[in-house]
Specification:
276 residues, alpha/beta, 7-stranded mixed β-sheet, 6 helices, 34% strand
Length: 276
């Protein structure tokens, strides 16, 4: 479901808690009932890390959890903006705009089919609140969550996922926890165990991982939604800084058009995204 001017608001939100949960990863909880009420899994907020012109641009953050009176943002320390944000303290105020973008489509999932979520690294962030949304509609026995990271200490969200009672399968690049290798390989192995293809796959992670998921979705012919990450200037589709190529014809004479991750996404069908 897309954002519209009628359900996008700007607020000052109090920091309820802010903690480091893994090397280079932080969990920020904000008092934002007005945004929480309007938000859907897969949408994001645009946050000003300081009330100043330095840094000038806001930073986009996926909604990790949507609570009745608050939202939670799981983010990775990547640059100067997130470094400044990581130093913000409880009870301080931050400026937010949201909810923004298109969320995941939870309609038309065939009854009785497996539903799969695949998170790689920080890509787990938007999938936790999505899991909570899916559990309100579908049998937990049909849900499977695949978690991937470079090493055990960088696995994110495992406790929340296991607490929900759904099956959680893990892989690490170095083999320190779970299966060794990329999470896409673990998923492909599991595909052969299921009777029939999944009814829907939701995924978010590094671009290379999403490229593999796009290839798998076309090869095995299962529907797959991907949440993309791109640098965003405005967050509302004006600056065009987050444009990606989207297939418009998937036949022999393939063509493409540009769409904006912030406005037309961040959720797209994996089979339509052209990953460079």
């Amino acid at each position: 479901m897309p954002s519209s001017p009628d359900n996008i608001i700007q607020i000052k939100a109090k920091i309820l808690s802010h903690k480091k949960i893994a090397p280079g990863y932080f969990l920020l909880k904000l008092d934002a009932p007005a945004i929480a009420k309007l938000s859907l899994p897969g949408q994001f907020v645009h946050l000003r890390v300081l009330d100043s012109d330095i840094p000038l641009l806001r930073r986009p953050f996926s909604l990790h959890r949507i609570n009745p009176d608050s939202i939670e943002l799981l983010y990775q320390l990547k640059g100067e903006g997130t470094r400044i944000l990581s130093e913000r303290k409880k009870d301080e105020m931050v400026d937010l705009i949201g909810p923004l973008g298109n969320g995941f489509d939870l309609t038309d999932i065939p009854e009785g089919k497996n539903i799969v979520l695949i998170g790689g690294g920080i890509g787990t962030a938007p999938l936790v609140t999505l899991t909570e949304g899916l559990l309100k509609r579908y049998d937990r026995a049909k849900l499977t969550f695949f978690l991937g990271a470079r090493s055990q200490e960088l696995i994110l969200g495992e406790g929340e996922i296991r607490h929900s009672g759904i099956d959680c399968l893990i892989s690490t690049d170095d083999g320190s926890y779970g299966e060794k290798g990329p999470v896409t390989r673990l998923f492909e192995k599991k595909l052969t165990d299921w009777k029939g293809k999944p009814g829907m796959v939701f995924t978010c992670g590094p671009k290379g991982m999403l490229k593999v998921m796009g290839s798998l979705s076309r090869r095995f012919k299962f529907p797959c939604q991907v949440s993309l990450e791109e640098n965003m200037g405005c967050g509302i589709g004006v600056c065009l800084g987050c444009a990606v190529r989207i297939r418009t014809n998937q036949g022999r004479d393939e063509s493409f058009e540009y769409k904006r991750v912030c406005k037309d996404g961040p959720v797209f069908w994996a089979s339509e995204v052209i990953f460079d």
